[in-house]
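Ticket 4471: requesting a sanity check on a complex prediction with zinc ion. Repro inputs:
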Amino acid sequence: MKVDGACHCGTIRYEAEVEAEKVAVCHCTDCQTMSGSAFRVVVRTLPGSFRLLAGRPKVYVKTAESGRQREQAFCADCGTPVYAAPVGPEPRDLVLRVGTLRQRDVLMPTLQLWARSSQGWIADLANIPAQDTQQVFAEDGRIRP
Ligand SMILES: [Zn+2]
Ligand SMILES: [Zn+2]
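Returned C-alpha cells:
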C-alpha cells in the first residue's frame, strides 16, 4: 500500500510502500520513552520504497539491550519521530511511525509486540471515561470546571 506522511511542522515529508496487513503496536519501554506515550504504532516499509520528499531528519542511534543498534529518525524542528532503520547501506526496510501517516485511519494493528512491558491500564482503555475533544483551558492554564 502506498502511503505518505509528514512531521507535525511539515519540514519533513515522505512517501513509501508498506505492508498494510503488518501494522504492529509496540509496547517496549524504548517506544514508551521515545514516543512519550504508552505504546507506539509502527509499520514496515518495502525495502527501497521510502522516499524523502522534503527535509532531512536528525538521526539518533539507539543501542538496544541486545546490543543491536538502530537509527531513530526524527524532525529536529518539531521532534516528531518519523522512522527507525537498521544502521547500514540502502536499501533498508524502515519502520515508519504510523501516527505520521496520512493513511493512519486505515492502518489497523494486527499484532502487539513486547506485551510483557505494556501498561496495565491498556486492556481497560474502553472503560476509561472519554470525551470528544479535550478539556477547556482557562487563560491561567487551569482546566475550566
Ligand atoms: Zn517537523
Ligand atoms: Zn518498541
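Notes from triage: The chain has one domain: 2-118. Leaving this open until the requester confirms.
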